[in-house]
Amino acid sequence: MDESTLYSNYFIGLGIAVVIILAAAVLLILVWLAARRILLLASVALDLVVKIKENTNSIWALQKTNEVAVNILEEAEAIDSHAGLVAESLPQTNK
User: Fold this and answer.
1) pLDDT of 54-88, one tens digit each?
2) Residue range 21-46: average pLDDT?
3) Radius of gyration, alpha carbons of the chain
4) Does position 12 have pLDDT exceeding 80, yes or no?
């Protein structure tokens, strides 16, 4: 092999290595940019989840309110029933 062929093969190999390194660098930069975008979107999504959680707390409180309202209704019905029994047991007075 003569010297010119050796230099030619060297520069071809060097050119291929540079292209591979540049391609790998570009891919790493693209992955890094995608990761930053994912992080940004994840933080926005987390803020939305927190707002949704805050907005749905009233739904769980409404369930507790409904339970209390049912208990109040049951007690009111019991009072009405007992008041009716008391009224029936009192003697009727005619004036």
Assistant:
1) 888 887 788 888 899 999 999 998 898 888 777 77
2) 98
3) 41
4) yes
Q: Where are the alpha helices (DSSP H) in 1-95?
A: 3-89
Structure tokens at 89: 């047991």
Measured CA to CA, the distance from residue 18 to residue 67 in angstroms comes to 72
Dist CA 27 CA 63 (whole Å): 52
The confidence score (pLDDT) of residue 89 equals: 76
28-44 in b/e form (b: 16+ CB < 10 A) is eeeeeeeeeeeeeeeee
Token readout for 43 is 């933080």
DSSP designation for 91: P
Please compute the mean of the pLDDT values over residues 24-29 and round it to a whole number: 98
Q: Could you give the CA distance from residue 9 to residue 4 in angstroms, rounded to a whole number?
A: 9
DSSP state of 53: H
Q: What are 12's two structure tokens?
A: 């071809």
Q: How far apart are CA 31 and CA 27, in angstroms?
A: 6
Could you tell me the two tokens for 54? 């805050």
